[in-house]
DNA sequence: GTCTATAAATCGATAGAC
DNA sequence: GTCTATCGATTTATAGAC
């Protein structure tokens, strides 16, 4: 056992990559487990995901997985984090590849919807019903922020954007309620703008969720034009152009 | 199908009221089972609901339930139908108890949110991720329509309501895509109005879902003012006032 | 129509050999 | 670090006595 890792000198690496050969192998196998769990998730859904089925898929025995993940919940956490990072990445990328605040917003929306349609179970994992018996640790909350920040970034780069005046003449409690959200997403903007951002983000997730969860079944098959129009409408309501 | 009819033989009943004593008793017990299933659902959630736990709660043995519901899925269908009817009823009632299209919309929104907060697992059942292994029959689609019709009713009673012009200059495919939805909800209205109605409804379910599913955890505790403002904004975007 | 009993699976997690 | 074996529990669903 003292052989391989004794020569950690040459292959010593920076912070993000494992130092020893042993650690690298372990990291690779961990990634393989997460990948297999992702495939399993895509087939059976979050609530039906089990450690045993993941082990079967890898040709391993269930107990072997406990060397890598102390519980089913920790594996779920890894999948949730991965999903948030993935959708956050496509959102950022899309927002960065368009000009004009409304076009950036629409590009972000389309990218998020495309990701959701390609990964419906992953979408359900992060934006659907909570998985029974699973308690989300704080780390997933941080990962979830990435997408929200991408949305807020579109607003942040459109300093003049503001929802129309007089929507609700005096919402008494809006200011204090919105304060923590403003601090995290849109420092310096007024309460209606922050609220409109929340609404835009909510409309997007709601639209994709209803579609993926089968609530437009009676409606149409070619959903894209309706989606694009609705997202344009919600972007306009936030003052984007 | 809600289950019982499927295995009811000679004593098949008329539309709503049972004929024989036997059938009435059977209907009562069926209702008791659904009620117990509702309690169980409220505790463990849709994905974890089992026939056995319902039987335990009733002091019955699991196999006895199969005389009333041929499968777990048929019991789930009954619960789904019940939930849709319940939220549809409060939506209708709220919409009918206010004057002015925007106020009616806001009343409907508050009522739907209140119902969702009071019945989070029922909400998850109908608006959350699909239950693994469950295929929704056509009857649930009909029940789901009740809430949507209540929303559309607010728009229908505000004939002048229309989203602002020039939101998306020419959405080429919007017209044909929106046609079936218009026929079901808002005959005679133009495509943008129908789309704005879809968006308003989507914003409402999205807002409640994100709240109930824990996505505003880092945000605020007093969520109501933000909710009301956002729904006012979405109502305005549909042309309500 | 309710019961006992059972079939045939599933699951998370752990102990201990190697 | 992977294996066998197992504990203790869950589930849907069915067969057959009464």
Structure notes:
The structure is a homodimer of 241-residue chains. Helices cover 64% and strands 0% of the residues of chain A. The longest helix of chain A has 25 residues, at 72-96. In chain A, helix 4 packs antiparallel against helix 5 and helix 5 (101-118) runs antiparallel to helix 7. Chain A is elongated and about 60 Å long. Chain A has 241 residues and is an all-alpha fold. The termini of chain A are far apart. Chain A has ten helices and no strands. The first copy, chain A, has helices at 21-44, 51-58, 62-65, 72-96, 101-118, 120-127, 138-156, 174-185, 191-212, 224-237. Chains A and B meet through helix 7, helix 8, helix 9 and helix 10 of A and helix 8, helix 9, helix 10 and helix 11 of B. The first copy, chain A, binds a DNA duplex (18 and 18 nucleotides) through residues 26, 50-52, 60-64, 66-67, 71-72.
User: Biggest interface, which chains?
Assistant: A-B, 65 and 64 residues
Strand content of chain A: under 5%
Q: Judging from the principal axes of the Cα atoms, what is the shape of chain A?
A: elongated
- What multimeric state do the chains show? homodimer
What's the end-to-end separation of chain A, in Å?
Answer: 63 Å
How many helices of chain A? The count is 10
Q: Roughly how much helix do the residues of chain A carry, as a percent range? A: 55-70%
- Summing up helix and strand content along with how strands pair, one would put the structural category of chain A as mainly alpha
Largest sheet descriptor of chain A: none
Q: List the secondary-structure elements of chain A in sequence, H or E.
A: HHHHHHHHHH
- Taking all Cα atoms into account, the compactness measure Rg of chain A is 22 Å
Average pLDDT value of chain A? 91
The low-pLDDT segments of chain A are 1-15
Number of strands of chain A: 0
């Amino acid at each position: 056992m003292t052989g391989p890792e004794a020569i950690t000198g040459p292959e010593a690496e920076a912070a993000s990559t494992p130092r020893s050969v042993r650690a690298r192998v372990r990291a690779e196998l961990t990634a393989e487990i997460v990948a297999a769990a992702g495939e399993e998730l895509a087939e059976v859904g979050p609530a039906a995901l089990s450690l045993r089925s993941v082990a079967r898929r890898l040709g391993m025995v269930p107990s072997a997985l406990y060397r890598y993940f102390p519980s089913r919940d920790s594996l779920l956490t890894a999948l949730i984090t991965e999903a948030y990072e993935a959708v956050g990445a496509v959102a950022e990328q899309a927002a960065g590849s368009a000009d004009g605040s409304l076009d950036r917003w629409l590009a972000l929306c389309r990218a998020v919807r495309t990701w959701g349609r390609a990964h419906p179970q992953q979408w359900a994992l992060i934006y659907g019903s909570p998985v029974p018996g699973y308690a989300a640790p704080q780390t997933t909350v941080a990962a979830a922020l990435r997408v929200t920040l991408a949305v807020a970034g579109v607003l942040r780069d459109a300093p003049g954007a503001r929802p129309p005046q007089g929507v609700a003449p005096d919402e008494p409690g809006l200011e204090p309620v919105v304060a923590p959200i403003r601090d995290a997403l849109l420092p310096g903007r007024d309460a209606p703008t922050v609220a409109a951002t929340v609404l835009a983000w909510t409309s997007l997730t709601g639209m994709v969720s209803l579609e993926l969860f089968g609530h437009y079944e009676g409606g149409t098959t070619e959903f894209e034009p309706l989606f694009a129009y609705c997202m344009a409408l919600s972007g306009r309501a936030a003052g984007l152009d």
